[in-house]
Fold this sequence. Notes:
By secondary structure, the chain is α/β, with parallel strands linked by helices. The chain folds into three domains: 2-67, Winged helix-like DNA-binding domain superfamily/Winged helix DNA-binding domain (Arc Repressor Mutant, subunit A); 90-162 and 269-298, Periplasmic binding protein-like II (D-Maltodextrin-Binding Protein, domain 2, 3-Layer(aba) Sandwich), CATH 3.40.190; 166-266, 3-Layer(aba) Sandwich (D-Maltodextrin-Binding Protein, domain 2). The chain contains ten helices and twelve strands. The strands form four sheets. It has a five-stranded mixed β-sheet with strand order 4-3-5-12-6, with helices on both faces. Helix 1 (2-16) crosses helix 2, helix 1 packs across helix 4 and helix 2 packs across helix 3 (30-44). The mean pLDDT is 88.
Amino acid sequence: MRALASLTFIEAIARSGSIRRAAEVLAITPSALNRRLIAVEEELGVQIFERLPRGVRLNAAGEILIQHIRAQISDFDRVKSQIADLSGIRRGKVSIACSQALLPFFLPEQIARYRTDHPTVEFCVLPRDRSAAEAALSDFSADLALVFEPLDLYDFEPIITVSQSVRAVMSHNHPLAEKDVLRLRDCLQYPLALPTKSYGVRWLFDLAMAKLSQPASVVLESDSFEFLRMAISESRLITFQIEVGLPQRDVAGSPISRPIYTTDFTSGLLHLGQLRGRVLSVAAAKFATQLAQALAGRYTSG
């Protein structure tokens, strides 16, 4: 495993962009880490980092090597997980890149459920927008991605896709809270707080607005869904969110949501997937199965 340790050191330097910062993470001296790097470069016969005034950066050879390193580390983690399963003890770490909508309710519930049976498994949840989620799969920082309306799916191997309707979210005492179902034009009578254009909900909103001649009064934009929920709590502002990002039922005193006619606001797709061709660890594969079952039981397949 000594060779894998050296590869891990190279990966740490690549992530940190600095030998000094990587050495701090690895709890070794910068000079010792630099010697490890030089030994690898001498074995390869080429440099893999550009030395910069304030750090280092992978060159073309380094980019090729780092993909190999991350694949090796991922495969070794998978093997460790499989060996642990032989004794009936599921260990390992599961990393998920996900849209912000999954953070408040769905993923915490699913992780808690999984860890009830497998308390030794660790989790890392990485909030990522549509374009960054697939990148997290490609660089092996995430095992799974759970994203709404991604921009592209070139290296994405889908596990399950479910439909997600968009709901209007408002304070519990908002005038529209009395209605069971809303028209989009109802919402446009009030000021709006919207996610920025990098998010799928905003993309669907802009598509819906292209069909209307009625203007929208967008007074607040943010890339934080938590901030948007707080901003509407004591005002007449309205924001929008997909089903999975909302509680299953209204909570007294908290912001509430109301469905919008699908003729006004098209539904979108929530995708659960992994890097194409990658073999997941036992822990990640089992968690993916749990997520897929939960989504299939709650939402319509896309």
